[in-house]
Structures are given as structure tokens and as C-alpha cells.
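Exercise 7.
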Amino acid sequence: YSVIIVSHRVKWQVSQMPSDIGYKDGSPYVSFSNTDLLATHSVDSMLVKKTTGTVYPLQEKWVGQYGKLTWERVGLSKDSVYAELNRYEIDLSKAEFSADSARFINLNYFETPLLGRLEDKVSNLDNPKRSTYLRFMTYTKKFELSGVLEGIDYEGGFSMRGQRFIGSGQRNEKAKITIAKNDSVKLVAMSEAFVIDPKQIFS
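Solution. The predicted structure, written as C-alpha cells, is:
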């Protein structure tokens, strides 16, 4: 990796050599194609894989297109939980970024991609697996998921925070968990938020 910007907050690096170097509107730029973009701070890191973008050094700005992010750093499979970017921008003086119109794939829960907002951040953690990032918030406000855990159905909104599935509702329309056994409903619980991980649900 080659360093493009470094500060006390974050170090940004790329995996490829520049594809173009020049000036635009009086400012220098450096472009990269099909590169990995890596940000690190302490032992934490975030990675945009196979992206294309341009660095404007004087503005400390990256303007990118395409790329893939995974939830590997919190222990989730890179093949079953990941996000794909469209166009995005990063303030390289910061250790974070966000992108709208991202496509989210979670094969554990959804058969088709979801569209929404993506947020990532690196921080001074002693164990990156405890991070609440990468985050994804879907634009769709209501889902019905059968078998979110064995014998449990879910209805409500959705987001990912780190390794956790966050089921969200609103004050006038709460999220709902239905627990059934032998085709008979045993319990219905409603809340403005549920946290769902592979082994348990809590509110």
C-alpha cells in the first residue's frame, strides 16, 4: 500500500499506482483505477475494495465510484454480508465517511439487495470486533422476515451496526417479534427497537 494522506487521526492508503496525474481548475489531482482504499487508526481499519477514485491533495478529498465493503472486521462472512457503493466522497482529514444509494447484501436475511445509506469509521479500539461499524440503514421502513431466528418472525425496519441486526420501529408503529411453536403463536412482542444477533434477541 502507498500512503496518500496521513494525520494524527487516520492514515489513508491505496493498493495501486496512479492511473492519471494532472491539474484541474488550478488544483492537482491523482487518479486511481481498481484500487483498494484503506484507512487505519491504531488497530482498527476500514477498507473499500476494488474502487476507482481521484485524490485532490490540497482539498484533502477523495471522489470515488464503485467499490465493495464487508463486515469482516466484526466477524461476519465477506461473501454473505457486504455493501456495494455507487458514487461517494470522503474528507480524507477524517477517519470516517458515509455514502448514499449503497446496495446492501445480507444473504442471512434477505434474498435481494437493499438500497440505503452506508457509514464507516475507524476509532481507537483495543478490539475491532467490538466496533459498531460498518453501519447500513435501509431506505425501506418495513420488512416482514420469516424465520429471522428459529421459530421467530420479525416485522419492522432494519439496519446493521457492526455485527448486529437492529430491528427498528416508530412510536406509532412499533417493530414486532412473533414467536411460534408447532404452528401456534406463543408470544408477540412489540418495541421501538430490537437487537438481533445469531443467538438471541433483546430490546
